[in-house]
Amino acid sequence: MSGPSAVKETPIERREELVEFLASGARTTDQWKIGTEHEKFGFRLDDLRPPTYEGPRGIGVLLKGLTRFGWAPVEEEGKIIALARGDGSITLEPAGQLELSGGQVDTIHATCTEVTTHLREVKTVADELQLGFLGMGFQPKWKRDEMPWMPKGRYAIMHRYMPLVGSLGLDMMTRTCTVQVNLDFASEADMVKKFRVSLALQPIATALFADSPFTEGQPNGYLSYRSHIWTDTDPDRTGMLDFVFEDGFGFERYVDYLLDVPMYFSYRDGKYIDLAGQSFKDFLAGKLPGLPGAKPTMKDWADHMTTAFPEVRLKKYLEMRGADGGPWNRLCALPAFWVGLLYDQTALDAAWDLVKDFSMAERNALRDGVPKYALKLPFRNGTVRDLAERALEIAGHGLARRTRLNRTGANEAVFLEPLIEFADANQTPAERKLELFHGKWNGSVDPVFREFAY
User: How far are the Cα atoms of 115, 193, 289, 331 from residue 327, in angstroms, in the given order?
Assistant: First the structure.
């Protein structure tokens, strides 16, 4: 959920331009990059409450403090709401969750270095403000109405619209954190294969990364409550996109899907115009009630693309959206998992062999069952754990074949180790926290802020 897109204000003359926009993302194999994003919850060390934007210990002051590391401020109506450095950015989710959108890098080693640097910089400033940061999928302690709201125009629009289309959308905005990776494709055919593999296996990532078992201080009956929230956020813009598996799927079919997703806004002259629920098709025809006679630009289209939230999202690259936020080592493990599966042709073929005969009903059963049962969800003659072990094996071989070594000669497969450990133990991060909650934490979630903070 970043800010307005940086695409040019070119008027859209033909529907085909929308298809061409997606197709223009194709890159040759040697140009493929890795872009990792992650979000985290801020909390005040004294009372564990999420910091507001305003005030001497607020998120605004934190952002200003980070400018000492060469981050340039981005303002909306005179307030710093984001930071930019190189091709990376730091942005705010609706309740002040801090998001790093990393630069485009060549290896998982580089991703991990970037994350390490970022967490060190944030900690330096946060320590001065007596703030901490926690990586989990869902806010473990505070109620929805105890979460602050950040001063961003698009969030005000979403805040009004979300309750009209689902009961958990405001929780998605204010109380969830994720880690995701953005990956390239070589051609339309390559995009289609990667899209299908990653959609079918997204529940496996959700299971391995499940880390949101608490709501308002108590177990909520889920292992990835964050993943469950997406099932009741907004059916028009979420889900498993069954059409991706249909014959003839490609850029054009995805454009059809996006044109059916209701709009949120248009960003004009530095202001967000509320168009919630209106149709981009009407916009193309110059018949939008909220902007009579106006026609969209490519920037409007790029912004609109960011308002669909399926499990895998296509832009000029593919975004893997199924994982809960977590600690440092899992912020490196998520891109490693998907790069291993998708950036090596042998691994991609093996991953497709693993999922190609899943039925639509099976894919949706995985999606719907994993938030509660994670690795222990039954599947065919085994469980999701069996799928996870197979996927991790394929990913490990894929990373080994890439032979991107660090200074000590280790390849990128080392970053899969925390995930392999969860699969071996048949125990997710959420289940480990539940054990602590029922054991040495004596039924309190407060220790999570100490023991699992960055």
Answer: 11, 30, 45, 7
**Maximum alpha-carbon separation in the chain:** 63
The sign one gets for the Cα dihedral 438, 442, 446, 449 is negative
Q: Do 14 and 23 contact (CB within 8 A), yes or no?
A: no
Q: What is the residue whose two structure tokens read 């530095």?
A: 270
Q: What is the DSSP annotation of 110-136?
A: HHHHHHHHHHHHHHHHHHHTTEEEE--
* 148 phi/psi in degrees, rounded to 5: -75, 170
The residue to which tokens 């599966």 are assigned: 341
Global pTM reads 0.96
Q: Which of 277, 192, 283 is nearest to 236 (CA)?
A: 277
* DSSP, residue by residue, 5-52: -----PBP--THHHHHHHHTT---GGG--EEEEEEEEEEETTT-PPP-
- Rounded to an integer, what distance in angstroms lies between the CA atom of residue 251 and that of residue 34? 21
Q: Which residues of the chain register pLDDT less than 70?
A: 1-8
CA 211, 214, 217, 218 torsion-angle sign: negative
For 215, the token pair is: 């709501």
Q: What share of the chain is helix, strand, coil (3-state, %, to 5)?
A: 45, 20, 35
User: Taking a C-beta distance cutoff of 8 angstroms, is the pair 136, 449 a contact?
Assistant: no
CA–CA dist 440, 432 (Å, integer): 12
Closest CA to 95 of 56, 28, 143, 165: 143
Output the pLDDT for position 440.
Answer: 98
Burial of 220 (0-12, 13-18, 19+ CB in 10 A): middle
Structure tokens at 117: 């640097």
Give the pLDDT confidence of 146-186 residue by residue, as tens digits. Answer: 999 999 988 999 999 999 999 999 999 999 999 999 999 99
Report the amino acid identity of residue 376.
K
User: Beta strands 34-44 and 382-383: pairing type?
Assistant: unpaired
CB atoms within 10 A of CB 292: 8
Task: Report, in angstroms and rounded to the nearest whole number, the Rg of the chain calculated over CA atoms.
Answer: 21
> Minimal CA–CA distance to 330: which of 213, 220, 452?
452
User: Where do runs of H (alpha helix) occur along 131-185?
Assistant: 153-165, 169-175
What pLDDT is stored for residue 2 in this prediction?
Answer: 47
